[in-house]
Every structure is written in C-alpha cells, then in structure tokens.
Amino acid sequence: MKIFITGLPLEVGEDELTAVFGDFGPVKSLRIIKDRETGQSRGFGFVEMPNDDEAREAIKRMNGGDYNGNRIKVAEAQEKPGGNAGGGPAGGGFKRNNNRERSF
C-alpha cells in the first residue's frame, strides 16, 4: 500500500522517515518530494509498505500526530485520474494537431 504524508518538517530525511515507518513493518520504498531548483523538502512524501495491514496501522497511529513539532497527516495515497505520473494527458509534453491522421 502506498501512503501519502503531509506536514513533514523540512529537515526530515528519508533515512529517518524509513526508520519511523519501519516500526510498523517493512518499507518497500520511500520518497520525500523536493523542490527541483533548491533541493529543499516540500514537506510531503510517499511511503510504500508491502503489507496492507501494517500500512493501515501506520496510518491509524500516525495521522494527526506530532512529528518533530509539526502536525502530520498520513493517509492512503490516491492514484491520479488517468493513471500517469504527471497527472496530465498521457503521451508527452507537446500539443498534437488532432486534424492529422496518425498511425500507431
């Protein structure tokens, strides 16, 4: 199960967060989202845990809690409509001319 966390203190690192969620069970992956230009944490991230019951327990116990002085929100991550990572139209970053025939 993939978990979404908001309200993270900016100084929290991936190793520290992995250890915190590791108290509930194995962590498959973890990513703190960072600003592209500065590399600074944006205060939110994702944790993936292979066991759904352990992930639900982490959500239940951590949501609304105090983490290094910040109140965090922890919830099951929701897939963006369309299922692509960028959230926009799939297929690339350019506008296509819909009047032309295309073959795929």
UniProtKB/TrEMBL annotation:
Domain of life, per lineage: Bacteria
InterPro entries, per the entry: Nucleotide-bd_a/b_plait_sf, RBD_domain_sf, RRM_dom, SLIRP/GR-RBP-like
Biased amino acid composition, Gly residues: 83-94
Family annotation (SUPFAM superfamilies): RNA-binding domain, RBD
Keyword entries, A-Z: RNA-binding
UniProt-listed PROSITE patterns: RRM
Region (Disordered): 77-104
Pfam families on file: RRM_1 (PF00076)
GO molecular function: RNA binding
Entry keyword RNA-binding: yes
Residues annotated as domain RRM: 1-79
PANTHER family tied to this protein: HETEROGENEOUS NUCLEAR RIBONUCLEOPROTEIN 87F-RELATED
UniProt protein name: RNA recognition motif-containing protein
